[in-house]
Design goal:
By secondary structure, this protein is mainly beta. Helices cover about 10% and strands about 55% of the residues. The protein is built from one helix and nine strands.
Length: about 120
Amino acid sequence: MKYAVIKVGARQYRVEEGEYLLVDRQPYAEGEIFEANVLLIGGDGNASFGDGLGSAAVKVKILEHLRGPKVIIGKHRRRTGYRRRNGFRAELTRIQIEKIRAGRKKTAKATAATSEAAG
């Protein structure tokens, strides 16, 4: 079972392939595919994060843009006749996790080879 921790907007989500999520509104069109910011790849007893991610990527498909349920906000102050009522609906995007691709970790040989070529 491969999973990833991605950052979409200002929040982080633990996702698996084929999963559906409701996230804050994204600036992409419906049906468009983009790569999410990958923070961690895990599963099968090993995990990689930070510099060990290499070329890890998570493909995300935008399914639809929608609005969340209405939340009613009521304010009042006692004995003054002050009452306010306001509503709010969050702007959301439904996404699907298409593919989780784990990046290759650089081995000691590859690191040594690149440092010799550079120096």
